[in-house]
Amino acid sequence: MDLPVIKPSLITRRxxxxxxxxxxxxxxxxxxxxxxxxxRNHFPxxxxxxxxxxxxxxxxxxxxxxFQFQDLLRMPYKELTVLLECAGNNRGLFRPKVFGEQWxxxxxxxxxxxxxxxxxxxxxxxxxxxxxxxxxxxxxxxxRPDLEGKFxxxxxLPLEKAMHPDTLIAYALNGNPIPIKQGYPFRxxxxxxxxMASVKWLRSITVIPAHFSGPFQDIDYMYYPExxxxxxxxxxxTIHVNSIIQQPLDRSMLEKGMxxxxxxxxxxxxxxxxxxxxxDGGENWNPAVVQPGLEDAYSWLHWNYTWxxxxxxxxxxxxxxxxxxxFVQPAKARWNRKGYGYNAYSTVHVKxx
Length: 353
Fold this sequence. Notes:
Number of helices: 4
Shape: globular
Number of strands: 24
């Protein structure tokens, strides 16, 4: 009799709209299988119709144009391994606690995205001199609890980020059409920015001469450092330097002897330079072995550390990463009332018996 197959499962945070967490502690492959990608939606899934395979570009452009799905397939393409992280990843770890989905580290996944560089499409249409920002609108829409009416999910990019050669209009993930839950048929992919920027189910691109002030731009996805005031708010953009201890799990019971501590590290500002591990609550730090990364600069790195636990007792294990821009993962994340950008040391507590 064959033994049953044991597999991890997505961790459900909400069903409508669907919000699911990637079981990140149980995956060591560089590419996340599509069925285990984390899911973060603001509205119910849109209905995919024939119109969904049309992408329009208009506004402050010289030659407005509508692209068919097959048009993009015929164009020169890029394939990039890109990490996507929800801005609210690890929100459940903020103290004092904040409202919102209580993610616990699994709102991050990685895949190989294929698509056309956005700037190539914009070269077809040409930009007017007045162009300032580019607005991306999805097919998903619905109500918000804080405003009257219905809204589509829409966000903008400044010209510099939109014209980066690796900002893609993607149509494939891991060699297959993008799954419906990840934005089929078109998805904007913005490497190094939190994933709220990578608009799913993309239907239109509009070049505008002013700042875009939609609710998913100027209300959500802003850092609010004050609990009861909007003073000092700033937009959420680049992914913070971060790491996660995948194994051992928090509150594990371990035997005396040799143990392999391992995990992931990533950043939106350059690349990871080093990862350090502490097994005494941050008193002392030692370098982990950082495995070579993929060719793309937008992927996480795997790291590992061998620990000889020769004494019984309770231990606090921590990891911290440093990137090529000089950013170091901090001991404490900057609190903000919407719970974005958590990147404090990854910490697990274990007991050796």
